[in-house]
Amino acid sequence: MELPLLIVVSSLLFALVAAIAVVIRCLSQRRPAFVRYESEKYFLDPKTSTKHLFPNLLESRDSVYISVVIPAYNEEKRLPIMLDEAIDYLERRSHEQQSSGTDLPTGSRFSYEIIIVDDGSNDKTTEVGHKYSLEYGCDKVRVLTLEENRGKGGAVRLGMLSARGKLLLLADADGATLFKDIERLESFLYKSSKSEKDILHSLAIGSRKHLEDEAKAKRSFFRTLLMIGFHFLVWFFTVKTIRDTQCGFKMFGRQVAKVLFPAIHVERWAFDVELLLLAERLNIRMGEIPVTWTEIEGSKIIPVFSWLQMGKDVILVSLMYTIKAWDIPNYRHIYN
After folding, report:
1. Residue span of the structural domain in which 210 resides
2. Is residue 23 part of a domain?
3. Where does the UniProt entry say this protein principally localizes (predicted)?
C-alpha cells in the first residue's frame, strides 16, 4: 500500500473511531439512572408488622457507628451462618465498649446495624433476615427486599444508600472473610487519618492477594488462566493500585460512600472495579488490607460466563470514562 493511501485509510479509521466515541458520549447517561421502587424505600418491623422508611444516606446524618451491608441472592442456607458470626462479634464488642465507657476514635460509642439486601431472591432469604430482625430488633437488623434482581452492584448501592453508619462495611453473605477482620480495616482508617474527618473520607479494601499462590495451586489451570486474565484487564484498563478488586469485604467512610455509590453505573459483578477506579481518580485515601479468607461452596459466579461479563464491563468502564461519556463526581465540595 502506497504511503499516501495508507495515510488516507488511517485518517478515515481515526475519524470513524472518533465519530463512534462522540455518538456513544451523546447517547450515554452521564450520571447513572437510579430507580428505586416504592416498596424498596421501606423495611418491615416483624414484631409489629409495620413498615418504616429507610433513611437516605445523602440527606441524613449518621446515627450508628457501623452499618454492615450484606447483598444476598438466594442465600437462605449460607446467610444464617454468616449472620451468626457477625452478630456474635458485633454484640460482644458493643457490650465490651459499653462496659469500658470509652469513646472510639470517631468520638462515638460502638453501635451497629445490619442491612440485608435481598436481591430478588426466589428462596426464603427475606424470611431468614426477618427472623434475625425479630430476635435482635429492626434497629439492629433490617431487610431491604428488592422487587427484581439488580445484580450485586445494584443491591450494594441500594443498601449503602439506606445506611446510618459513620462507617459502612460491605460484607458478602457467604461469610468467606473472617468477620473479626473488620478490626484490620478500622485500624487502617484510624492510622492513616489525622482526624475524624479524615476517617470518614477513607476507604479500606479487604484483600486476598497474599493467598494467590495457594489459590492457584487449588484451582484448575483454566480457572487460574481466567483469573490472571481478569487481573490483567483490570490493571491495564482501570485500577492500578489495588491488586484484589473483587474481595467482598470493604469499609467506606460515610463521606466516601456518599460520593461513590450514587455515581456507579455497573450493577453486576464488576461494580467494584468502577468504584475503585473512581476512588483512584478522586485521590481518595485507600489501602489494601490482608484478610482471613476461606473458599465457601455455593458461589453465584458462573464459570466462564461471569468472567467474560466482568471482562466486558471492565473494558466498558475504561471506555466510558476515557471518552467522558460518564461523569466523575465532584468530591472537592464534599471534602471541604
Report:
1. 36-335
2. no
3. endoplasmic reticulum
